[in-house]
Amino acid sequence: MTSLPGGSDDAGSPTEPQPLVCARCGTRAEGPQPTWTCSVENGVRQYFCDTCSRENLRAIEGRLDSAWW
Question: In Å, what is the CA distance from 23 to each residue of 8, 11, 12, 56?
Answer without folding.
Answer: 22, 28, 28, 13
